[in-house]
Automatic annotation (TrEMBL):
Keywords: Repeat
InterPro entries: RCC1/BLIP-II, Reg_chr_condens, Ub_ligase/GEF_domain
Pfam families per UniProt: RCC1 (PF00415)
Keyword Repeat in record: yes
Domain of life, source organism: Eukaryota
Name under which the protein is recorded: Uncharacterized protein
Coiled-coil ranges (or none): none
Phylogenetic classification of the source organism: Eukaryota, Viridiplantae, Streptophyta, Embryophyta, Tracheophyta
Species for this entry: Brassica oleracea
RCC repeats: 21-72, 73-123
Length: 142
C-alpha cells in the first residue's frame, strides 16, 4: 500500500507521489511517459528510479508526457513534449528543466492538457505553453 500525497491521470497512464516524495507510474508506456528505459505497458505502480533521491511534491499527466514538481520548485519532464520546451523528441528518462523561459523560475505547480502544459511559479506567474489550438493558452502557440 502507498502513502499517497498526489495522483494524476493521463488518457492511458497514471502517476502518483508518495508522502516520502517517490514517484510511481503505470499504464500505457508508449512515448516514454512512464519514465522507464523502454516502451512497456505496466499494470501496477512502478517506481521512477531516475528520480530516486529527489523530493517530489506533485505530478501531472498529459496524453504523452508526465511532469513532476519537486518540493524545492524544480520541474522534471519525461515522455513527448512535442518540442514545447524547445527540445523536440522522445525522452524516456526524466530530465530536469532548468531556467524555463530564460529565467530561474521556482515552479509551484504544473497542469497538463492533451497537448499543452501550464506552469505556476511561487511568485504567482503563469506560463502556459504547447499547442494553442482553440486558444487554450490564451496567447496562441508559444
Amino acid at each position: 500500500m502507498f502513502d499517497v500525497q498526489s495522483i494524476s491521470l493521463g488518457a492511458k497512464h497514471a502517476a502518483l507521489v508518495t508522502r516520502q516524495g517517490e514517484v510511481f507510474c503505470w499504464g500505457n508506456g508508449n512515448s516514454g511517459k512512464l519514465g522507464l528505459k523502454v516502451n512497456l505497458d505496466i499494470d501496477h505502480p512502478k517506481c521512477v528510479e531516475s528520480l530516486e533521491g529527489v523530493a517530489v511534491g506533485s505530478v501531472a499527466c498529459s496524453d504523452n508526457q508526465t511532469c513532476a514538481v519537486t518540493e524545492s520548485g524544480e520541474l522534471y519532464l519525461w515522455g513527448i513534449d512535442g518540442g514545447t520546451i524547445g527540445e523536440s523528441g522522445r525522452q524516456f528518462l526524466t530530465r530536469k528543466i532548468a531556467d524555463v523561459f530564460g529565467g530561474s523560475l521556482r515552479v509551484y505547480s504544473v497542469a497538463c492538457g492533451a497537448w499543452h502544459t501550464a506552469i505556476v511559479t511561487f511568485s504567482g506567474q503563469h506560463y502556459p505553453y504547447g499547442s494553442g489550438t482553440f486558444g487554450v493558452l490564451g496567447h496562441g502557440s508559444l
